[in-house]
Amino acid sequence: MKKIMLSVLTCFFAVLSFAQTADKMIKHSGEKLDVKIIKVGETTIIYKFPGEDAEQTIGKFAVAKITYGGSGRSEDISEKIDISGKDDWEKVQIITDPSAVIGLKKGEDVSGKTSGLISYNSAGSADKKATKRIKQDAAELGAPFVLLVADKADGYGIKQSIKKGVAYSYK
Fold first, then answer.
1. DSSP readout, 25-65?
2. N or C: which end of the chain has fewer CB within 10 A?
């Protein structure tokens, strides 16, 4: 009888400890997810929902924090970027990797370009001006990220830079 009781208690505590190993992922949007973290990569996080085998991917920019259920250790993933208007354009981040925006909300198209026909820009200054304009467009929308989809520089005597992207936000 003692052995049976000991076996039952051992199984109970094994199941209880397994159930408590769910990791918690907190997104910048405020959403809290109970998941199992598979891998934290350079720009993405791979995870599974409890009871599912399908792996999910989310960009690190969308995630604020992970708390690992097994050890209780917490890891800050990314800082939230607050954009309150066009004046915050310098905070906007340009992203070139599409996987980095997974989990963020897609917004409007944004663009930035320097003047056309007659321009006194060097190639470097034209690029800086176009970058500033695309960031200002995103900041005006309240978006802290721009996924760059086109970056064209015209260098035939006229220094012009054209950038096109998509604004992304947390919600």
1. EEETTS-EEEEEEEEE-SSEEEEE-TT---EEEEEGGGEEE
2. N
